[in-house]
Each structure stands twice: as C-alpha cells, then as structure tokens.
Automatic annotation (TrEMBL):
It is a multi-pass membrane protein. Residues 267-377 form the ABC3 transporter permease C-terminal domain. GO terms for cellular component: plasma membrane. This is Putative ABC transport system permease protein. It is found in: Cell membrane. The chain crosses the membrane at residues 16-41, 258-288, 309-335, 341-364. Residues 23-229 form the MacB-like periplasmic core domain. Keywords: Cell membrane, Membrane, Transmembrane, Transmembrane helix, Transport.
Length: 382
C-alpha cells in the first residue's frame, strides 16, 4: 500500500505540492515561534543558567526566581545548620532604568531602558554568574560605580567598555559586556552588591530573593536530592535544583504571562489555519484522482483499502513537509544564533512540533476521505 501511495504522490506531485508547502510553512512558523519564545524566556533565567551553584533556596510559595518575593532571614539561616553546606550567596533583584548621559548643552531627553540590576559578589570564586564572569572581570566590579551590560544592548545604546551610562540617574562606568543578559522585557545589568545597594531607592537589594547554596566537595552522593526532599514540607523555605528552577521559571513565563499566552495563541491559530488549508488541498487532490480511485474499485480494491491508500498519501505529504521544515528551521536557527539572537531548541520541542503537524495532517486526511464516496466504478462509464 505504501508503494502504491508513494508512486501516486510522485506521479501527481503537483496536486500535493500546495499541502506540502502549507504544512512546511506552518511547521516552520510554529517551531521558530517556540524557539524564539523559549530563548527569550531562558534569557530571563540567565542568573540561574550562568551560575555555578547547582542548588538554590527560595520562598516556599514561589515557582519563579524573578518573582521579586523576598526570602525571610530566619528561614535562610536554616541553611547554615546543614552540615553539607559549605557556603551560601545571596541573590537579589532590583528593577531600575538605564540611559545615556546627556552631553553638556543638549536638552534632548535620552531614551530609557528598563533593566533588572543584580548585585554579585566580587570574590573570585563567587557562584552567581560564576560560569561567565572571569576573575579579572569580577575584580573590576570592586570599583564603585561599575557595571557589566548585555552585548546586544550595549551595541544598541552605542556604548563600550570604558563608557559611562546612567542607572537610576547615577553615573556608572561599563567595565564589561556579556552575551545572554537580554531578557523578554528588560535586560540584566550586573554590578557589585555594594554598588547595587548604593543606587537610589534600591535599599531592598540587601534582602535576597533566593540564595545560592554551595555544598562541600566531600558531600555524599545524593545530598542534593535528600535536602530537596527534606525541605518539601517546610512552610517558608524550598530548595531547587538549578535546572528545575530554570524550567519552572520558563513555564511561568510561557503559561501565565501575557507574552507567553500571545505566543501560544498564535501557534494554535496557525495550526487551525493549517488544518483548513491542508484539508482543502488533500480533498482537491482526492477529487482530481476520483476516476483513478474508481478504477481501483473496479479492479477489486475495497473501500477500506482506498481509505488506507489516501491516509498513506497524506502521511507521505506530512513526512515530506517535516523534512522541508527541519532543513529550513536548522538553517534559520543557525543564522539567528550567529547573529546573537536568543534561540532555544530541545528534542521534546522538536518532537512535539512534529507530532502536532502530523496530527493536523491526519485530521485533514480524515476530512478528505469524504470525497472517496464518489469513487464509484460506474462513474467510468459516464
């Protein structure tokens, strides 16, 4: 049956080409939207993904690290009572604005950029952003009034290392730029904890939202899982693995933020449009081949065998479309990554997209099967 379906699709490829193009375009839009959305949401979790700490402690009721909820001091002090804990490091978010200083004599109001300020330790072995900040760059943050910017944001603003910017109307000097600090709605600006506390109206930076937990090198295997289990019932404190907190934060942005709902709604609309267009294309292909199907009925093909034939043809269309989508998406993602655009693709994402497209093709095929009722051998005599 597959051989017959393949030969028919190859022979009448022009009839099936619109369906292949439609499914390919829909799949490309879907996977690129998801990749860009997850890339942007993963950048929100940059303090997590770029830090060396594998264990994070936060408020028990929070499922996203950027919620802004402060961690109570009595709860965080419990971490020091754990024998395997070697060190802890606070993480606090502060929201502010950033702009260029106005040159003397000019009255133009500079454009302001919304940012989140993160104060990090200036110790060489600090865990916060420990995977991306070199010891020399971290040491440069010891100078008061110094910051590290996202590379793309710095390029948009036209500033480089050594230039000055205004953060909350306070003059700061750029000492470094890093990739991946640009989030969905704002960028992350790194500075020392002392500089972060010195910003006007940011006295709350001293109160952590989460705490990075460093375990002793000789901690037994399974310590992380054991500690997470022990704190599951704690009323004020919850422990997270880094990857689990990143995933939870991305889910919160994708499912509960307005931007995430818009992205997911657009994907749903794209699938509905694909279903309508592909069903029409496949129905037209079946209608154009109705005499051939009638001839097969005359040769002894049952109606069920014809149904399986049409379903196999639709499957070939879907597989061909997936191949085109995969090739073009790979090229586009590689190009965007080369340009510094945040794109995040996982195997489950690709599999989910492929299953959604094939399900769409399958339903379209079921709709097209209605045209087979006209495949009557008597039609050959008309």
């Amino acid at each position: 049956m597959l051989r017959v379906a393949w030969k028919s699709v190859r022979h009448d490829w022009r009839r099936y080409l619109p369906a292949v193009i439609c499914v390919s375009v829909s799949g490309l839009l879907m996977i690129m939207q998801l990749a860009l959305m997850l890339g942007a949401f993963r950048n929100v979790s940059a303090p997590l993904s770029m830090s060396s700490a594998l264990l994070w402690a936060g408020p028990a009721e929070e499922t996203s690290f950027d919620s802004g909820t402060s961690l109570q001091t009595p709860a965080s002090s419990l971490l020091w009572l754990i024998p395997e804990v070697e060190r802890v490091e606070p993480f606090a978010l502060a929201f502010s604005t950033m702009s260029l200083p106005v040159p003397p004599g000019e009255t133009t109001i500079p454009k302001e950029h919304f940012i989140q300020v993160v104060g990090t330790s200036i110790k060489k072995d600090a865990m916060l952003f420990g995977d991306v900040i070199s010891p020399a760059l971290r040491e440069s943050l010891a100078e008061p009034g110094t910051v590290i910017l996202d590379k793309v944001v710095a390029g948009v603003m036209g500033v480089g290392i050594g230039d000055n910017i205004l953060v909350q109307s306070k003059m700061m000097r750029v000492v470094g730029v890093l990739d991946g600090l640009r989030g969905v709605m704002m960028s992350t600006v790194l500075t020392s904890q002392a500089t972060a506390r010195s910003l006007p109206g940011q006295e709350s930076v001293g109160v952590p939202n989460f705490i990075l937990v460093g375990l002793a090198p000789d901690a037994p295997a399974g310590t992380v899982d054991r500690l997470i289990t022990e704190f599951q019932t704690h009323p004020d404190l919850r422990l997270w693995k880094k990857d689990e907190l990143i995933t939870s934060t991305m889910e919160q942005w994708a499912l509960k933020s307005a931007i995430g709902v818009i992205f997911l709604s657009s994907i749903g609309i794209a699938l509905i449009v694909t279903l309508l267009v592909v069903s029409q294309s496949l129905s037209a292909a079946v209608g154009a081949s109705i005499r051939e199907y009638a001839a097969l009925r005359a040769y002894g093909f049952s109606y069920r065998r014809l149904q399986r034939l049409v379903l196999a043809q639709g499957g070939i269309v879907g597989i061909a479309a997936l191949g085109v989508t995969g090739l073009v998406a790979t090229l586009l993602i590689g190009y965007l990554q080369g340009k510094g655009v945040a794109v995040f693709v996982t195997v489950p994402l690709v599999l989910w997209s492929a299953c959604a497209l094939m399900a769409c093709v399958f339903v379209s095929n079921l709709i097209a099967l209605r045209r087979l009722r006209k495949a009557d051998p008597a039609a050959l005599l008309r």
